[in-house]
Amino acid sequence: MNRHLISAGDLTRDDALLILDTAEELARVSERSIKKLPTLRGRTVVNLFFEDSTRTRISFEAAAKRLSADVINFSAKGSSVSKGESLKDTALTLEAMGADAVVIRHGSSGAPHRLANWVHGSVVNAGDGTHEHPTQALLDAFSMRRRLGSLDGRRITIVGDVLHSRVARSNVLLLHTLGAEVTLVAPPTLLPVSVDTWPCAVSYDLDGVLPKSDAVMMLRVQKERMNAAYFPSEREYSRRYGLDRDRFAKLPEEAIVMHPGPMNRGMEIAAEVADSPRSTIVEQVANGVTIRMAVLYLLLGGEIA
User: Fold this and answer.
1) Are residues 29 and 45 in the same domain?
2) What's the pTM?
3) Into how many domains does the chain fold?
4) Strand order across the 215-218 sheet
5) What sign for the dihedral angle of Cα 261, 266, 271, 272?
6) What is the mean pLDDT of residues 134-149?
7) Does residue 248 sit in the same domain as residue 159?
8) Which of 22, 47, 110, 242 is most exposed, with the fewest beta carbons within 10 Å of its own?
């Protein structure tokens, strides 16, 4: 594996399988009464979050602490960043503190890549702008593999606001690497201009794609990133691209439903679908800690006891 995890596209098939297999081993450790491992004792992991995120930050913090690492949570609000300090100066401060790994979430695409040039420790991208979110793609793949088995030849459908979704881009790259066939379904206004260069198919007909899907992942409509009208109304969007009870019934019997969260219940996904036994949404949150443990363990060269 590389020293950093910036993009899902940087992972080879062997890298991805190593992370998933390591996570499987760590999941068994998490079932013990004492969940903590001494693996990264003496190492320091910094959570550098320039954007709000409850689940991702807590997930990385829990992962690092379960591996016995020291954790520093650095929030841009209330720090020198709010006084105008640059990312580079912040990086140099972290370097002086002896950070072994920096987990960064930033509103600008490419920020983790820049940071990797300035620090000696490992950099993990926890979401940058509308670019990528590789550990989310890994936990999604881990969740799928636990339910479906091998992802080779599996048909995965990703639905919704692809334009603003770093999760969608990372999932397309990783799932393609793992041998799955990915189809994006979205209004034309919510697809990026470069989507024809992505290793996936594109459809505008959700009802036609669902019966052939092994897993369907619903994306949140990111209204906070929208500065224009991308569809006529929320009701119209839900009617054409929402996963309601009737659409859910069109899925094959063994197919699963996913969502990276947070959800707009009743808009992109009906509450009864989100809460059904075939939904992996709660599992995805739990699997996030396990996958992030595996990533930190492999990047920092720990040992499983």
Assistant:
1) yes
2) 0.93
3) 2
4) 201-203, 181-185, 155-159, 215-218, 256-258
5) negative
6) 98
7) yes
8) 110
